[in-house]
Amino acid sequence: VYPAGTQLPPIEALAKELSVSRGALRDALKLLEAEGVLYSMRGLGTFVSNSMGAIQSSLNQLQSTTEMARNFNLELRAKVLGVQEIEASPEVAVKLGLDPLKDRVVRIERLRFASNEPVIHSTDYVVASLLPSPVRPEMFEGSLFELLETTSQVKVVEATSTVSAVASSVREGRLLGISEHIPLILLEQVHFDSRMRRCIYSRDFYRADRFKFVVRRRQGAAV
């Protein structure tokens, strides 16, 4: 028996363990993957999904993680791991269009839980001047979008997003309750407010057995 989140052995080893042919095993694994029992990632292997199932969300519409979960009648609980006002690093300064020599950001690290299970590890960098001071951990237990709008009248309206498939590090695995090298979805975004100012740079690691992101594509005019 392989519990949720674990990786299946290679085809040859699993076929031998179950005393079946490799062809029959491949067919069975494809069926289980189609039913959502298993999921696979090229170069990493096949993994057992959690019984909670995956949340499927469109990237065509900008939503906070809290709003996305609400659409599925799912309440996410946030555990704030750390909040700190710091100088913008060169990388963060480039992402947010800041001066690393004088501009500061608030770094917020959170772990999101669904049904008491950790599913998202988030790190957000917010332009410090857009947040009330002093910042306190309890301010960031809900939606960051809603916090900015209610406290600073800053409405987040747009984002540039990059989606990557990554393998969990030792730390990510420990935080998300999974093994090392388990597939994760990294959603990296730069958010803009209604005045097209960059306001948030975020890096969110989603468990791949919990979330699926969908993009609607349309063919453009021929070039």
Structure in a nutshell:
The protein is of the alpha+beta class and about 220 residues long.
Helix content: 10-25%
Number of strands: 10
Q: Uncertain runs with pLDDT below 50, 5 residues or more?
A: none
Briefly note the structural class of the backbone. Answer: alpha+beta
Strand percentage lies at: 35-45%
Count of alpha/pi helices: 6
Overall mean pLDDT score? Answer: 86
Radius of gyration: 20 Å
Broad shape: elongated
Through-space gap between termini: 53 Å
Order of helices and strands: HHEEEHEHEEHEHEEE
> The biggest beta sheet, please?
6 strands, antiparallel
| Lateral strand order in the biggest sheet | 4-5-6-9-8-7
Question: How would you sum up this structure, described in words?
Answer:
The longest helix has 13 residues. The chain is elongated and about 65 Å long. The termini are far apart. It is of the alpha+beta class and 223 residues long.
Throw out a few tags for this protein:
alpha+beta; two-stranded antiparallel sheet; 10 strands; 37% strand; elongated
Q: What are the SSEs and their pairings?
A:
Layout: H1 11-18, H2 22-34, E1 38-41, E2 45-48, E3 55-58, H3 65-70, E4 76-87, H4 90-96, E5 104-114, E6 117-127, H5 144-152, E7 156-167, H6 170-176, E8 183-193, E9 198-207, E10 211-214
Parallel strand pairs: 3-10
Antiparallel strand pairs: 1-2, 4-5, 5-6, 6-9, 7-8, 8-9
